[in-house]
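Hey, weird one. I pasted the histone deacetylase sequence into the form twice and got a warning about non-standard characters only the second time. First submission, copied straight from the form history:
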Amino acid sequence: MSATLCYHRKNPEKKVSDDAPCNPLISEVDMSNEIDGGCLSVSGTMESGRYKKLQKGSTIQDYCDNENNVDDDDYDEDEDSDWEPINHFSLKKWFCCNCTMPNFEDVCRCDVCGEHKEFDIFGHELFKSTFGDGTWNSLKDEVLQRSQASASKSCTAIGFDDRMLLHTEVVMRSHPHPERPDRLKAIAASLAAAGIFPGRCSLIPAREIYPDELGKLFHPDTYANQHSALAARIAAGLCADLAIIIMSGKTSNGFALVRPPGHHAGTRQAMGFCLHNNAAVAAFAAQAAGAKKVLIVDWDVHHGNGTQEIFEGNRTVLYISLHRHEHGKFYPGTGAAVEVGVMDGQGYTVNIPWSQSGIGDNDYIFAFQQIVLPIASEFAPDITIVSAGFDAARGDPLGCCDVTPAGYAQMTHMLSSVSGGKLLVILEGGYNLRSISSSATSVVKE
């Protein structure tokens, strides 16, 4: 397979060249390693095994180092995420309540997201909500009863439980962790402020995933502290149940407002803020409910190495990921275009790797039009699952990309027709509270 898709980043109407056929189900391994945001080349080779975990561009450590110097030796090859808490910093600093990034004391606004250092984001009207405080427990039964009474096939089902907010760091550090309970609170509050939920969406009751359901995926040595394990089991259980009710026809689509995220978790290890692979759990649950073929689209800015590992030999699950890669320098280093699956699953893993930061709406929509949708349509899935990380959103401190809420809504709309409207969106990453709340709200509205 050899083709070249060239386009202008600001004008995606410039189509592919005449000698650039597109074979929907990729079965060859002679694809290039990158998409650079201006030209997608589907030919050539790359060296295998060069998966360094040093991400390109600024990191938290770059920002805080007085000399603004980074040495490759400072990076631990065994580190399981692209976030490193700051252990030393001599200058006075403050941490942004919106994106958690450090800033020098003499600046009033966050250098990453623009949030004012004295602004209380949860005091803003947009984020005023009963989610995450004591009143949610008293309202839960009422919301469930109202949801069950108003549930219809046209209604979006929401999976949420406040016990997932218990998943926190064991030892709180001076620098807040980006994967924090506030992520769920911000999205839930934004949905409430928009009158979407509680309201037009139905809430499904939460349950913990059963051990035999996890036994299909995870090595028994996978563990976490008490609250983290509970939160992860509830998240996985909600994703499984959402997939089941969508397949049953009780609702047409669903949004899993869950944490911890899951797409980095594989069969034998938890990594990258992820404990259980929620998308994989949902895919197996959908198949148990009658789905013969499942499509998983992963638009998190990081490659879902765990999801790929689980399904790379499975031809009944098509996995498509769009992510920063930068020749293996961006976490987790996997997801080159030459990775297309193994054995019976060869051709059912599709990686669309970006070679730089700053990728925006035009790039994603063009990739959807030219790659994702043609392949997905030929595969003809019974249900589509989205690993919806919002860390490619504008203002995210880790992703450093430029996707807007309108861009996420457009991608959701494009996917909604692939499997007859059967669509499950599962929250993955995203660490700017304003970005993830507005992006998630746009997706649910769509």
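That's the output from the first submission. The warning seems to come from a hidden character in my clipboard, not from the data itself. Residues 1-77, 218-225 have pLDDT under 50 and may be disordered.
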